[in-house]
Amino acid sequence: MMFSKPTTEQLLAGIAEQLRTTVMAEIQTEPTKILLQQIDQILMGCSRRAAHEIAFVHEEALRVATLTGKDLGIPASLHLDDVVAWYQRVSTALSDEVEAAFASGDQARIDAARAALDARSAVEMQILGALDLVGRG
Amino acid sequence: MHNVNEMPARVATFLAKAEPSWKNVTVDSYEVMTGGYSRLLARAEVSHSLGHETLVLRGDPPKDRQLIETSRQQEYELLLVVADHGVRTPRALHFDPTGADLGTATIVLEYSKCTSFVPWFNAGGSLDGLHLRLAEAIASYQAIPLESLPACMERPASWEAYMTKRIDAWRQASHNHVESLPIFHYVAEWLDAHRPPAAPLVLRHGDFQSSNVMISAEGQFEMIDWELAGIGDPREDMGYFKAVAQAMPPDLLDDTRIEEFCARYRELTGMTELQINPATVAYFLILGVVGTVEQLMQGGAKWATGENHLFTSVFNMSSVLFGQSMWLAAASQLAEPMKQIAAAARGGK
Questions:
Q1: Which candidate, B98, B8, B100, places its Cα nearest to that of B47?
Q2: Cα separation of B134 and B123, whole Å?
């Protein structure tokens, strides 16, 4: 099938490290240095995503299904395209619930929707890590 | 515009046409500048029969490498108005609207003698009193009468209509994206439920952040990069400045300075304490970024669909991820103060 180790997470983090420690020193122009710093941050985010993305989506779907009381089904397969297509339905259901909660004026319902959003944001920040707006200023 | 072999000759030909009194125009050096995310920037040293100039060229990247889409025509017209009203900003000198001469739609600006604020701060510049200078800088361009602004700028029918449209832009940004964005829907609903007291519509910079201000030797701010300018609420630029400062310090509007900033701004503009206070500024930390957020999300979506090949578009989606956590936190902190302000405003009517 394939070698599972090093994992995708390790490989991407390793590429980022090589770019940072070896390639960067060879770069002469400022725009390319900035681009490389951006690539480094994106690669590290990809590394964290690769390790957990499909699990994160399923965990959030469970929260949203519980929140909305809707049957959100399951993805057609665990291939990422199918998971992402399913996640779109999960996200739409959460967006709809947020609007319905505010329209109802029910503070408990608003707070419950907000808790689901806080959980989503926490995962996003875990993937993002530190943000350095390189090249600005 | 980034072709350093071709551009010196193009610039010389363009300037010879634009400045007929200059003879023997030669471009002594031409170098690409960094610092701008959205537009191409270059610096040219130019000699001619009457002297020497340092010029900055600011032009559009190719369509498939644009982070955001904005009008150079509007920006050029606005730069003329802003400079004519005494606002500190590099003066626009020439414009190639079609790119016939310079290869892409390009504004030619005077080179600023000021220093970029962020590197200046990082090198140890003192922040003493700069929050007051910031209030003065914002008040300076907001004082321009709306009728003086370029005709191509959209005029909202009223503050209420403007706010409704601006808040709805959060929902539209989600609807127009390649996937639904639930936090955007929450932000829209929350903003609608916690509207601040009305304020007069003014010119807003639209991308007012520390990397778009420079500082003079006398400690005054100079504004650059007006491409996202529009007519809107006066507190938007304050909130936007504070929002970006969360990811890129310094925050001149932090808890130790915000009250003095608001007081100085009120003193200059005559606005009331209910309109301008730390809570209403923080409300616009959320609302004020919607224009940029829309553009950044569109850029990222176009990268995902292959219409855009600018890697920075992907990178800048990280700013929105960071922003989402900030907007949620701000909404939690502001809910009660905004309710109190609304109640006080109702009581004062």
A1: B8
A2: 19
Q: What is the pLDDT of residues B95-137, one digit of tens each?
A: 999 999 999 999 999 999 999 999 999 999 999 999 999 999 9
Categorize the per-residue pLDDT at B36 as very low, low, confident or very high, splitting at 50, 70 and 90.
low
Determine the pLDDT at residue B64: 76
**Helix ranges (DSSP H) in chain B:** 7-18, 72-84, 117-122, 130-142, 159-175, 182-193, 236-247, 258-269, 278-287, 290-304, 311-347
Tell me if A91 and B116 make a contact (CB, 8 A cut-off).
Answer: no
Contact A131 B319 (CB under 8 A): yes
For B295-322, the pLDDT digits (tens) are 889 888 888 888 888 888 889 899 899 9
CB contact (8 A) between residue A88 and residue B179: yes
What are the pLDDT digits (tens) for A60-76?
999 999 999 999 999 99
- Give the Cα separation of B93 and B180 in Å (integer): 44
| CA closest to A104 among chain B residues | B189
**First-to-final CA distance of chain B:** 56
Query: What Cα–Cα distance (Å) separates residue A87 from each residue in A62, A92, A121, B34, B138?
Result: 11, 8, 15, 38, 43
**Window A:46-85, CB contacts with B under 8 Å:** none
Q: Which of B138-152, B166-180, B306-320 has the lowest mean pLDDT?
A: B306-320
Are B10 and B102 a contacting pair, CB within 8 Å? yes
Instruction: Answer whether A120 touches B (CB < 8 Å).
Output: yes
Chain A CB within 8 Å of residue B179 CB? yes
B56 phi/psi in degrees, rounded to 5:
-115, 130
Separation of alpha carbons B56 and A18, rounded Å: 36
* Interface check B210 vs A, CB under 8 A: yes
Tokens of B98: 């079609």
Please, what's the b/e burial string for B303-317 (b: 16 or more CB within 10 A of its CB; e: otherwise)? beeeebebebbbbbb
Tokens in use for B275? 């309109």
Name the residue facing B34 among A30, A120, A133 (closest C-beta).
A30
Among B141, B134, B139, smallest CA distance to B84 is for B141
